[in-house]
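Write out the 3D structure for:
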Amino acid sequence: MRTEPSPRTLSSQRSAARKLALQALYRWQLNECPWQDLIQEFDEAEDMSRADREYFRELVEGIWRGREALDVELSTWTDRVPSLLDPVEHAILLIGVYELRHRQDVPYRVAINEAVSLAKRFGATDGHKYVNAVLDRAARTIRPDER
């Protein structure tokens, strides 16, 4: 009999999946490759045992397949074209916009807070403020009824 993880466990597993997705998407920006290669490469990552593997896969595959559309959307909320964004912040914003657009089960505040946490941990100094501002603008457009 398989039991569903508790909400706290699921939240922790998704946070780990987002962190690994950030690392995979950062790597992809530096050296483009098929999404399947990223999944395989990160399958052995130290943190993968704590991550929601399916969520990681969905994020990487979904962003890889939809990057052009996500970047077009992103450009409406940023002050520069996405190709000029810092690669870490760009990857974080792609994850945040993907979640806002495609994961209605993730409340917009969770998507923003998770992105800000990643930016604080891995981004440039004060990059989290930029991520917060961009995703707040995105949430107003993508999820106006949730606010």
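The two ends are 39 Å apart (CA to CA).
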